[in-house]
Amino acid sequence: MENHASDEADVKHQINEEQQNIIINPNFDDGLNNWNGRACKTVLHKSMDGGRIVPLSGKVFAAATDRKDTWNGIQQEISGRFQRKRVYEVTAVVRIFGNNVTSATVQATLWVLNANQREQYIAIANVQATDKNWVELKGKFVIHGSPSRAILFLEGPPPGSDILLNTLAVKHAKRNRPDHPPFYENPGFGVNIVENSEVKDGATQPWFTLGNCKLSVGQGAPRTLPPIARDTLGPHKPLGGNYILVTNRKQNWMGPAQMITDKLKLFLTYQISAWVKIGVGVSGSSMSPQNVNIAFSVDNQWVNGGQIEVIVGETWHEITGTFRLEKQPEKVMVNVQGPAPGIDLMIAALQIFPVDRRERIKCLKKQVDQVRKRDIVLKFSGLDDDSCDLFPYIVKVKQTYNSFPVGTCINRSDIDNEDFVDFFTKNFNWAVFGNELKWYWTEAERGKLNYQDADDMLDLCIGNNINVRGHCIFWEVESTVQSWLRQLNKTELMNAVQKRLTDLLTRFKGKLKHYDVNNEMLHGSFYQDRLGKGVRPLMFNIAHKLDPSALLFVNDYHVEDGDDTRSSPEKYIKLVLDLEAQGAAVGGIGIQGHIDSPVGAIVCSALDKLSVLGRPIWFTELDVSSSNEYVRGEDLEVMLWEAFAHPAVEGIMLWGFWELSMNRENANLVDGEGEVNEAGKRFLEVKQEWLSHAYGIINDESEFTFSGYHGTYAIEVCTPAGIVLKTFIVEKGDAPLVLSIDLSYL
């Protein structure tokens, strides 16, 4: 007989567990019991500011007052009331008051004291609070290890202003079940949704202007689609050569626009392409490079659809980008804008069309066979010729490990979770540390070095035969540089740079396979501005001398997606050539790969351009983001196949995979409690596709031939005398690999 009462009890227990608040006295019904100030005072109020501020709920609220620093606030210790490896959701109702501060960020932070007195601060969530209304602060956290103490506190506003707290709850987070895979009814792949993109017959409708600029039609644009659009769409009839001419521009944002709300479909990925050119307007404006941007206004929020930098009077340029909607908007407008006031803008053949990404992946799978596989000949000896006629020798070949580098970012707190470690060690053969090798982590205070976190992580990787990238020695973006470094004079800073190189590369010599030497040089210039142009090649050359075995990389973002004129492939190539001209030992090209709604043709175009440098290309920080796990999985699959199919790419590093251990929302492959989501399943399926298998019989020449990926194989040969098991490794090589296998000992 079925025990329905037991099932109901389990359900009730689960509901009660999810509803249980681990915060004691969450509404201050018991005064300030279990609450205290973090280096400040706490006070209970029924109202403030002459009755203007009253509780949103309940009868009272608390204030953290007499705050002397941004980290001061109200706190509660939750030690012993949480479960490790469980995801909790924090919900608080907050506002600010005093010191003439009308708006400030309030952040919920968790302080954790781990084993060996290792402190950890977990930023849970933040919200922009005001002195006018209560707002909700909401976020999640998970504790991987078994800390001795844990304290949740609010912080953030400037000193002198109060943090007001009405209620705070911490409950077991419910997992949102994934949406169904999007259904695209009549997706119209390859069909341009822009009306009158060729401005035929001299008419500009339905185009209109943003601002009081003027639209007219010119003749002389290219009669073919731009190359990247052509790569996706294939053969296309010739264009008419007309273009939109925009004159009398008085603001950067002025240009042609068109409403496209009703033509867009949710979760479809759109490729954007156009020819653009600029000319000297009536004001004879600047000849300096100008940005041209295709922008989307989605319910009055601007979204980047691609950018390019062009010079007045130059030839036509292709601008490209991608776009996707994941929530139903009220109105969407596309607009072409960007150059300085007074500069004329010309746009031809603007295309916005949905992309059939599955079809491209099918083509890439065929391309991969040419790029990544090697012919293998197994030559057998010791066969019984008499029995061969009666009993064919059957060969089963199964690849157990693909040696192509697929790695991930990990953090020190992650490895306290055995479930995280299990997924990591089973599915990745390379690693990179998220923060633990960065200078601001290893020497937050001058002269106080901390390599313990990196040592712990490196020990785990070495113990599991996982190679490690060193990220990063320096970081050119000033906001990432420690305050004590920013205060040094030129001589002191140069000495600190040389000491940093010596400390790091001596300590880890031979243990780290790569280094990102000076991160994001296309987006920052802290060291170059203070120490001169020669400091960049100097960093590479000192690093090479200290550890000649390590490959030294440049590393930057938005190189592959057309979203940022500062980091176009052309500018990245120029950076590398300039470094090499100054003697820098550049060994590899790092593309971070923080990408949205990727389109294969755009990514491939960037890879093709960068491949002329003749250096190995790695995706060093790949992540994708979508609220729909199925779409997220397809985004990731697009990037994996584009990389794997391109001969210049020699490795892929994901920028994490575990929920709450990643920088981006809606990017994880595994949820915070260890369940692989739909995107993670897609990732694992692709990894399985990258394992070769073969089955057949030994031929009359005593051979068995097949083509397979590089890596480790197991072979099973069924003979009249029994089964023979062997293993072998396929290394890189152009010539067929010939392996001899002796079966005579049976």
UniProtKB/TrEMBL annotation:
Alphabetical keyword list: Carbohydrate metabolism, Glycosidase, Hydrolase, Polysaccharide degradation, Repeat, Xylan degradation
Domain GH10: 391-686
Family according to the record: Belongs to the glycosyl hydrolase 10 (cellulase F) family.
Taxonomic source organism: Cardamine amara subsp. amara
GO molecular function ontology, one term from the record: endo-1,4-beta-xylanase activity
Entry protein name: Endo-1,4-beta-xylanase 3
Transmembrane segments: none
SUPFAM superfamilies found in the cross-reference section: (Trans)glycosidases, Galactose-binding domain-like
PROSITE patterns per UniProt: GH10_2
Domain of life of the source: Eukaryota
Pfam family, one: CBM_4_9
InterPro entries: CenC_carb-bd (IPR003305), Galactose-bd-like_sf (IPR008979), GH (IPR017853), GH10 (IPR044846), GH10_dom (IPR001000)
Alphabetical GO biological process terms: xylan catabolic process
